[in-house]
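User:
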Amino acid sequence: MHAAENVDLHSHHAELIAKALATEGGHLSIGRGGFILWYGDGCRLLGYDPEPIKAACIEAGLPVIDSRDVAFDAVARLVIRGPMVAVGTPPDPPPHGPFSYVPLAAVAAAYRAAGAEVVNLPETAADAPSA
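Assistant: Predicted structure:
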């Protein structure tokens, strides 16, 4: 990769990170297969080298959920049983199931409880260890 291509890629990521920051539910999710930057309703960027974009997202203040160190079966349960993050769209009313859309904080709390690294998203009373 040439230096100019790297600058263009960084600029593109910065633009999408800014869109994610401006979008309710916008965040970066990282798993064993790479990353997904969620920046709008149905809008996402996928990639396989998460470290540069993770650092940029954390620096920008964007919520990051990194589940690479969580047991595979625990992540599979979270993904399969849902619910999903409402990105750029209103959350669904309860009850929530696998095909429901909920606020980012609810999904982040479940990942945090499973041992995932959650950055730039404060722990709520509902997912505090004493709750």
